[in-house]
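Much of our argument rests on the idea that a fold can be written as discrete symbols. In the encoding step, the backbone of a single protein was reduced to a row of integers, each denoting a local shape. We regard such an encoding as a compact summary of how the chain folds. The record that follows shows the chain in one-letter code together with its fold in token form:
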Amino acid sequence: MRYIRYGFLAVLGIVLISVSLANRGAVTLKLMPDDIAGLLGWNFSISLPLFVVMLGGIAAGLVIGFVWEWMREYRHRREAGQKHREVRKLEREVTRLKRAKSGDEDEVLALLDEAS
């Protein structure tokens, strides 16, 4: 399985390098269309190689997706934490009740109850 992963990463690296080399031409990115930028008097543009724009878009999409998913799963994580705390509380109560019950019994039987 390790070799499959290394092979996949090698192929992915080769593809990314070849795409990057094929798309080295500069493109201009503008924050707003020219008409709106003229009205506001604020025109921001930058020239970057096309492969930087493509890989940056992929990276930005991944980050946005991870953050979105993390925020969406907050409710599930909170419920899991509450259930975990409740289980720990109930386990402590069961242990306390077993000790209270075994106070009348023989010590050997109490040890066997705790083991099971």
